Structure formats: C-alpha cells, structure tokens
Amino acid sequence: MLQLHLGRFRQYSVVIADQVLEHAQRPLAAAQNIHAMTRPGGWAMVATPFLFRVHARPHDYKPLDSRRPEAGDGRSGFPESEIEVFGWGNKACAKAHIGGPVRAYGLWRDLSNDEEYPLMVWAFARRA
C-alpha cells in the first residue's frame, strides 16, 4: 500500500487484501488505496475475520460487517453497485473457536451459514 504515497504506482487487474484491513488503523484510507491500485474493470477482494478471537498483532479494528449497509457504501471509490459483501459462520463454529480446540466439538459438525454469527466477512468490488 506504500505505492500510493510514491506518486506513480502500478495498477492491477486483481487486488487481494486477505486478513489485512482489520489491522489498518484507517481502513477507509486503506480501501481507497486498494481502489487506486485496481485498474479500471479490475476486481478487488477483501476478506477479514469478524466474530473471531482478536488477533491484535499489532492491532485489530474489525472494519467489515456484512450486516451493515455502510460496508459497501462506495466511500472507497468503488461504486456501490459494484460492491458485494458476504459473511459466513454459525453458532457452533463460533463456540468451537471461542471455547478451545476445534476437535472438541467434532470434525463433522454443521457448517451451514447463519447470518447472526459471521466468523468471516469478505467483499468483492469491481472498479468501473
């Protein structure tokens, strides 16, 4: 993300920020930088943990929530119509994650999605 501050920077057809934005103190500025690095017609994919143990190394700010409309409100530079935000998780997985080793809750537990317990949130955005 340093490229934006250098004046000239390269643009890419695909920009992936996986497990990064939750550590940015200014996630909107980081998202705007992702927009700047995405070439017109290109795609950006951002994924962040949500209902997840805080892994504050160095910080954990939790910028995305698939249940909030502002997660895809267009302030990043990507048009609202070109942003889709999704989440996945369920109560059993949240309990397993918070309560200790996953194997204590069984390998074959229900993995169906429950929007009330998003462990992971991700967004796909296309630059116009």
3D structure, described in words:
With 128 residues, the protein is of the alpha+beta class. Helix content is 16%, strand content 25%. It has a domain at 12-87 and 119-126: Rossmann fold, CATH 3.40.50. β1 (12-18), α1 and β2 form a beta-alpha-beta unit. The longest helix is centred in the first third of the chain and has 11 residues, at 27-37. It starts with 11 loop residues before the first strand and ends with a strand. Mean pLDDT is 76; it is low at 1-6 and 66-71.
List the helices and strands and how they pair.
Layout: E1 12-18, H1 27-37, E2 38-49, E3 83-88, H2 91-99, E4 120-126
The CATH topology of one domain, please? Rossmann fold
Question: Over all CA atoms, what is the radius of gyration?
Answer: 16 Å
Mean pLDDT: 76
Overall shape = elongated
Quaternary form: single chain
Please indicate the percent range of residues in DSSP E strands (runs of 2 or more).
Answer: 25-35%
Task: Summarize the amount of helix as a percent range.
Answer: 10-25%
Number of DSSP E strands:
4
**Uncertain regions: pLDDT < 50 for 5+ in a row?**
1-6, 66-71
Record keyword descriptors for this entry.
16% helix; Rossmann fold; single chain; disordered N terminus
What is this entry, summarized?
By secondary structure, the chain is α+β, with helices and mostly antiparallel strands. It contains two helices and four strands; from the N terminus they run βαββαβ.
